[in-house]
Amino acid sequence: MLRANADSGSVISKESGLNMQDFLLQNYEWVRALHIISVIAWMAGLFYLPRLFVYHTRAAAGSEMSETFKVMELKLLRYIMGPASIASWIFGLAMLYANPGMLSGGGWMHVKLTAVVLMTGFHHMLMIWRKQFAKDENKHSEKFYRWVNEAPTVLMIIIVIMAVVQPF
Ligand code: HEM
């Protein structure tokens, strides 16, 4: 049976003496697959939510259309993007914990993590803009949201090239 053992820190099985790093290395492909699944869900929301904002700018405050957009935006953030972003971080950091050499092996992981931190910052800006729409206090134009919609695309391209090609 797998369980945490408070006495000896990260040992997770008294019988096998398997520590957390060994466990993650033995199941690395599963962790990497779960990482990619969470990232796909997160990216779907990061691409879709700014599109909702683009069309929400056309809906009159208090109108049925505007109220519908508010529900869609809240559910997308709360039930898909939030959990997916947390899962992406957990599985990503788990792989880094299992294989910390990736941080000193070359610059690709540093460039990737910088782009991921910017992506997480963009996620938080979307949360702020959603709250403004929810209070009928949106401050930005349709054109503004069309432009910011390009940010996750550019960051995603950088991240995936760094993660797959590992060019330097
Ligand atoms: C949220 C924080 C993130 C962390 C800490 C993180 C960390 C990692 C680590 C350590 C690996 C394993 C690399 C290897 O074994 O070679 C990995 C793989 C990968 N990551 Fe992330 N990542 C994060 C977010 C993202 C995001 C946002 C994307 C896409 C937009 C992404 C795309 C990928 C891909 C495609 C792989 C697989 C590469 C391959 O198997 O060749 N990651 N990530």
Protein topology:
Layout: E1 11-13, E2 18-19, H1 20-26, H2 28-56, H3 64-98, H4 108-134, H5 142-148, H6 150-165
Antiparallel strand pairs: 1-2
Helix pairs in contact: 1-3, 2-3, 2-4, 2-5, 3-4, 4-6
The chain binds protoporphyrin IX containing FE (HEM).
Structure overview:
It is a single chain. The chain has 168 residues and is mainly α. The protein has one domain. The protein is built from 6 helices and 2 strands, in the order E-E-H-H-H-H-H-H. Strand 1 (11-13) and strand 2 form a beta hairpin. Helix 2 packs antiparallel against helix 3 (64-98), helix 2 (28-56) packs parallel to helix 4 and helix 3 (64-98) runs antiparallel to helix 4 (108-134). The longest helix has 35 residues, at 64-98. It is elongated. The model is unreliable at 1-9 (pLDDT under 50). Protoporphyrin IX containing FE binds at residues 32, 35-36, 39, 43, 88-89, 92-93, 95-96, 102, 116, 119, 156, 159-160, 163-164.
